[in-house]
Amino acid sequence: MKDATLVNHPPQVEVPPDNHPVVAPIHQSVKFEFETVEETLRALRGERSGFFYARSSNPTTRQLELTLAALQGREDCMVCASGVAVVAQTLLSLTKQGEHLLCFVESYGPTRQLIRRVLGKFGVTHTMLSIEDLAGIEAALVARPTRLIIFESPTNPVNKIADIAAITRLARAHGAMTVLDNTFAGVHQHGRYDVDYYLHSLTKYISGHGDVLGGAVIANTALIRALRADFTVFGSMLDPHAAFLIQRGLKSYFLRYRAQSASAQRVAEYLVEQRGVERVRYPGLTSDPQHALARSQMSDFGGIVTFDLSGGAEAGRRFAEALELFAITPSLGSTESLVMPPQLLGSRDLPDELQRQAGIGPGTVRLSIGLEDPDDLLTDIGRALRAAGAG
Questions:
Q1: Pairing state of beta strands 197-201 and 215-219?
Q2: Residue 391: what pLDDT?
Q3: Mean local confidence (pLDDT), 21-38
Q4: What residue spans of the chain are helical by DSSP H?
Q5: For FRET with 324, which of 124, 279, 367, 369 sits at 20 to 30 Å CA-CA?
Q6: β-strand 148-152 against 177-181: which pairing, if any?
Q7: What angle do CA 116, 215, 263 make, to 5 degrees?
């Protein structure tokens, strides 16, 4: 074998069956082969296990999918390149021209934009309500056939809590599917509810380190099967190295999520007592109007604390710029703390009235609490509040 051939057909190293790697290897390969054409065809027909082309599946991404499905209490999962990608691919796969869906003003901005701009262009109509308007949800379901309800809990950015049991009950009674973006709550929560599809931005708590993008849809086997062919041709599959990083991040997921929740609780309780802070939205606060609902649904309340400064947008800018331990940047759930001031948080696709309905005001600030010592975070926040004229 000449050198030019050798580098393209290197020696194979086989791991003995009783000699397992403690950490699964990264299968950084697009293509997989069987020894015969017939075995290849059997795999393509689903008659045997195996892999063929990474746009359909890969051993590294498959391990992540099975882990996530088990954590969410479902049978199957598909991962793709980002959180927005999984929202887009799921909605495009589940809807068609002439169908109607329900969504909410409190939803993540790109989700609303996908529904209003992209699905609308293809003839999918929608009704947009407040997540707290259960009577409106029921009335909309009675008024016309509805394909699905897509919602979040807690919502981004103001931590409103959806009544998941009520929404799923109404949906089931009227033949609508439910799609829950469960990113804020995390993959370990809300699995006991009658939700059809769970969506997650793996970029956030699940990977947890702010260094990789990813998205996942989780459901039972038949529901995932209904999406699989479309996901394959959409082509936004997760790279195996990214899947490896996310799987590695999951090892510290529970430690991180619970530590961040505990620190966020302290930050929220501190902010409630500060002059110039008008309203603090954190479901772990006993003073939060939805605390009882949150406690009935969640074991941990997450690392996002949202509040309003009485000084408005300018106070929010001064506050964010005075912080030393919080990066002014989007995303959430990573090990470092982050801040989104009003200038970056506003929902530009919503008019002022709908922004107010969503709970976003001129002085709204969102904090994502990381893994720093909470005493240091409180010191930093106090200093920044004083710089903003709110402390």
A1: antiparallel
A2: 66
A3: 94
A4: 3-6, 37-44, 59-72, 83-94, 109-113, 120-121, 134-143, 164-173, 221-234, 240-250, 253-272, 291-297, 312-322, 342-345, 352-358, 374-387
A5: 279
A6: parallel
A7: 100
Q: Which of 391, 364, 324 is nearest to 159 (CA)?
A: 364
> How does pLDDT run across 34-90, given as a tens digit for each residue?
999 999 999 999 899 999 999 999 999 999 999 999 999 999 999 999 999 999 999
Give how far Cα 272 sits from Cα of 90, 262, 267, 286, Å. Answer: 39, 16, 9, 11
Distance CA 378, CA 270 (A): 8
- Cβ neighbours around 222 below 10 Å, total: 9
For residue 173, give the nearest of 133, 197, 140 by alpha carbon: 140
Average of pLDDT values for 23-34? 93
Which position has the token pair 């801040």?
A: 339
State the DSSP string of 280-298.
EE-TTSTTSTTHHHHHHH-
State which amino acid sits at residue 242. A
Topology alike, domains 57-250 and 253-387 = no
Per the listing, tokens 């009658």 go with 194
Q: How many CA atoms lie within 13 A of 199 on its CB side?
A: 25
CATH class given for the domain over 253-387: alpha beta
d(CA 102, CA 79): 24
* Residue 4 clears pLDDT 90, i.e. is over it: no
| Amino acid in position 335 | T
CATH code reported for the domain at 57-250: 3.40.640.10
pLDDT tens-digit map of 322-337? 999 999 999 999 999 9
- Domain spans in the chain, listed from the N-terminal domain onward: 57-250, 253-387
Report the C-alpha gap between 275 and 110 in whole angstroms. 34
Can you tell me the mean pLDDT for 123-135? 97
Residue 8 pLDDT > 90, yes or no? no
Distances (CA, A) of 355 to 56, 107, 339, 358: 40, 11, 19, 5
Is residue 196 over pLDDT 80? yes
Confidence bin at 346 (pLDDT 50/70/90) = low
